[in-house]
Amino acid sequence: CAVQHQGALVVTHGYFYNHQIHRPAWQSNAWKFTFRTRKWQQVHRGESHGAPSARYSTSCVEFNGGLFMFGGDDGGHKHSLNN
């Protein structure tokens, strides 16, 4: 999912099919793209640091400085205490 926050685009979670390893590569980390500098910066390391398990098809919203994520599908094979 992606939201705009303080002049940046924050992108988190999802997956892509990694053709080199012949399976999906699930993502739970978060990155921001700052429009002014046109640079990417990692802002969260993901599930191993408290984020919900990797998933796709989520909805999210920025509210009072926080990113709130709802729903999504983890493919039925990921489990996390942070979900």
Structure at a glance:
With 83 residues, the protein is mainly β.
Distance between the termini: 16 Å
Number of helices: 0
Average pLDDT for all residues: 89
Strand and helix order: EEEEEE
* Inertia-based shape: globular
Backbone structural class: mainly beta
The Rg value, from CA coordinates, equals: 13 Å
Contiguous low-pLDDT stretches (5 residues minimum) are none
Record the strand order, biggest sheet.
1-2-3-4
Sheet with the most strands, sense and barrel status:
4 strands, antiparallel
Helical residue percent?
Answer: under 10%
- Give me the count of strands: 6
Give the arrangement of secondary structure elements.
Layout: E1 2-5, E2 8-18, E3 23-34, E4 39-44, E5 59-63, E6 66-70
Antiparallel strand pairs: 1-2, 2-3, 3-4, 5-6
What does it look like?
By secondary structure, the protein is an all-beta fold. 0% of the residues lie in helices and 52% in strands. It is built from no helices and six strands. It has strands at 2-5, 8-18, 23-34, 39-44, 59-63, 66-70. The strands form two sheets. A four-stranded antiparallel β-sheet has the order 1-2-3-4, with no helix packed on it. It is globular.
Characteristic key phrases:
single chain, 83 residues, mainly beta, four-stranded antiparallel sheet
